[in-house]
Amino acid sequence: MDIREYLKENILLFDGGMGTCYAERNNTAADACEWASLTNPGEIEAIHRAYREAGCQALKTNTYAVNRLRMPENDCRALIRAACEIARRAADGAYVFGAIGPIPVQDDRDMNAEYRFVIDCFLELGISNFLFETHSTDLFLHDAAAYIREKNPEAFVLLSFNTQPDGFTASGRLIRDLCRDCANDPNVDAVGMNCMTTARHMVELLRKIGPLDCPISVMPNAAYPTVRGNRSFYDGNPLYFASQMAVLRDEGARILGGCCGTTPEYTAATAKALEAPAHYRIPWPWPEEKAPAPPRENPFWDVLCDPDRKAVAVELDSPENADLQRFMDGARELRSKDVDIITIADCPVARARVDSSLMACKIHRELGISALPHMTCRDRNLNATQALLLGLCAEGIGNVLVVTGDPIPSASRDEVKSVFNFNSRSLMQYIRGLNETVLPAPFRIFGALNVNARNFYVQLDIAKKKEACGCEGFLTQPVLSAQAAENLKLARQELKGKMLGCIMPVVSHRNALFMNSEIAGITVADEIIARYEGLDRVQAETLAVELSADFARDIAPYVDGFYLVTPFGRTGLIARVLDRFREEGLI
Predict the structure, then answer these.
(1) Containing H/E element for 76?
(2) 3-273 and 311-406+418-449 share one CATH topology?
(3) Secondary structure class of 137 (helix, strand, coil)
(4) Could you give the C-alpha distances from 182 to 160, 177, 441, in angstroms and in order?
(5) Which pLDDT does position 279 carry in this prediction?
(6) Helical segments of 368-423, H only
(7) Which run of H or of E encompasses 529?
(8) Residue 295's pLDDT is what?
(9) What sign does the CA torsion over 100, 159, 138, 242 have?
(10) Smallest Cα–Cα separation from 64: which of 135, 157, 129, 143?
(11) Contact, 227 vs 253, CB < 8 A?
(12) Alpha-carbon torsion (449, 451, 454, 457), positive or negative
């Protein structure tokens, strides 16, 4: 029967987790599973048959991690061919789905072409059902679905995303939004979720997704994993799992199955549980969409929105050791100058400093001054990021500046590794999702804008994408050239967000040369460098005040505020610059 017709009257039950089942039966690592289609085909076929005999009506090919980014092209072709042949032999009338997991993104590769290659391998073998499983984003998947539809208009495409119990995928997207977006794609036949979460939590997530115009798929893990001997084990209970799968059926899921840890025993228990008729219930009591959280008191944002004022943000680096006295003294001096907010970088140039978020909470609590912690994507995974954001919200911090962050310098053996679960855009999108679902008061999200880039139009395009992900304002790189000022003017015309133009006092000829040569994103005009040559500290600081006022005057018509960077902790110099700004009516 055509699968679409089948789904109108029936529940489609998939098999379980091939990788973990193979690992359990053969006492090996799950990542050897795909190769077993060539090295141990009899065992893969036996597992398929066990799932089929347990009552499933759909089998996934053993191809989750088969792609050219993980192995040579000829091996990909051989593994896909072998996996399809094995699944077909074991299917006995069941539907066979070509399984495609996420392909590791590489900037130097055409990722759409990589997905098309895998799709073509399946199409050449006559596969017409496709399961894109355990993806954390729909990036590339809409193009893949359109490509399949172009090649085979009758093909069936199911997109399935991983999700944590809180409803966020590994990339920080809300499963609710992903499923709704993909359900609106005419080339997609079904959407859903698999992996990372158990059946009980998927019941709650399914209710949040709400009714869609296409079948919804759910394939939970057997349980949450435990690690023993460097391997993950899923110690769940098949009968409990099956009872929750019946609830998922009752709540509207049309496609059911299992992921990590679900053996044929889980499939058999689920098939038996689904034999019972669905419980009659009142039409789905869909939860109301969460009303947007009321904005918390945010004096800095209020100033940014005041057309009669220019906001003042000052960056003050946290110390490299645990002695906070100088930092706190500097913050007090800035407060005395009526600075609207203090920004704190998150371990700039990947060198460890006192945590920016902890320092933001400290000055907000002890000095009563607004703080804007920078948050990089470098050093925290998804869980740590959410935990930190929850803490910041609880401490009353209402603004964050999101940047990708510099990678940690390392030798060839990579003794110290960076963690990048996000880039700046995906982290902004994640925070926006938390604003909508979890946080009692939303963050104002800021981003960086490099006005010194050679091809500034590329930066503008990135900035527009940041705005689409939730960015509401930009802090620019230092304006120390006429070209940077022109780029900022263009940004004002093209972007919707609030704009803070960066003024970074240059304190010496040596400092100017260093910034121009060794700090990414900063360009100091040659004529400025020349003006510092031969000056002592007093003369150089006087020139710094003069030049800062000159650039502030140039960019004032195009900014909502000024963002001053404190050089070497010299808050006294920043105080002089602010006094000059007030004298000239700039703030």
Answers:
(1) helix 73-91
(2) yes
(3) coil
(4) 10, 8, 29
(5) 66
(6) 382-394
(7) helix 526-532
(8) 63
(9) negative
(10) 135
(11) no
(12) positive
Helix-helix angle 382-394:424-437, to 10 degrees:
50
- The two structure tokens encoding residue 480: 């120390």
- State the amino acid at position 527 in one-letter form: E
566 neighbors 504 (Cβ within 8 angstroms) = no
Q: Which residues pair with 342 in a beta bridge?
A: 314, 371
Ordered by start, the domain boundaries in the chain are: 3-273, 311-406+418-449
The CATH number fitting domain 311-406+418-449, selected from 1.20.120.1780, 2.40.50.870, 3.20.20.220, 2.60.40.3950:
3.20.20.220
In whole angstroms, give the CA distance from residue 328 to residue 316: 10
Average pLDDT, the chain: 91
Pick from 190, 142, 143, 201: which is nearest to 14 by CA?
A: 190
Question: What is the structure's pLDDT at 418?
Answer: 52
Q: Report residue 280: phi and psi, to 5°.
A: -70, 135
Pick from 253, 201, 195: nearest CA to 225? 195
Percent of all residues in the chain with a pLDDT value above 90, rounded to a whole number: 80
Backbone angles phi, psi at 95, to 5 degrees: -70, 140
Q: What is the DSSP letter of 218?
A: E
Task: Please check whether the domain covering 3-273 is classified as CATH 1.10.10.10.
Answer: no
Q: What percent of the chain has pLDDT over 70?
A: 93
pLDDT digits (tens, 9 = 90+) for 2-61: 999 999 999 999 999 999 999 999 888 767 799 999 999 999 999 999 999 999 999 999
3-state secondary structure 152-219: CCCCEEEEEECCCCCCECCCCCEHHHHHHHHHCCCCCCEEEEEEEEEHHHHHHHHHHHCCCCCCEEEE
Closest CA to 77 of 41, 21, 132, 122: 122
